[in-house]
């Protein structure tokens, strides 16, 4: 997912933000359905801020805004899957220090 799926704060991202809000709704309804069915399936929405990847525009990379690295997200995923069966990490929002949105 993305932080854009929780707060629409960036202009010119209408379709992107809408798709991320949809992912937020999907993960929450899946979690509730699994809970209702009594399964032990855990659903976690991991929502990072801007991550330095090859799809990030060069202008954004060079803008000086703080960026996460892909390794930061990988470590978060390892944390979530490493929790005991009794633990449900519902939502994990990851932002770089001093991110403005």
Automatic annotation (TrEMBL):
PROSITE patterns assigned to the protein according to its UniProt record, in alphabetical order: ADH_SHORT
InterPro entries listed in its UniProt record: NAD(P)-bd_dom_sf (IPR036291), Sc_DH/Rdtase_CS (IPR020904), SDR_fam (IPR002347)
Keywords of the record: Oxidoreductase
Gene3D superfamilies (alphabetical): NAD(P)-binding Rossmann-like Domain
A Pfam family: adh_short
Gene Ontology MF annotations: oxidoreductase activity
Extent of the signal sequence: none
Entry keyword Translocase: no
Organism superkingdom: Eukaryota
Family: Belongs to the short-chain dehydrogenases/reductases (SDR) family.
Protein name: Farnesol dehydrogenase
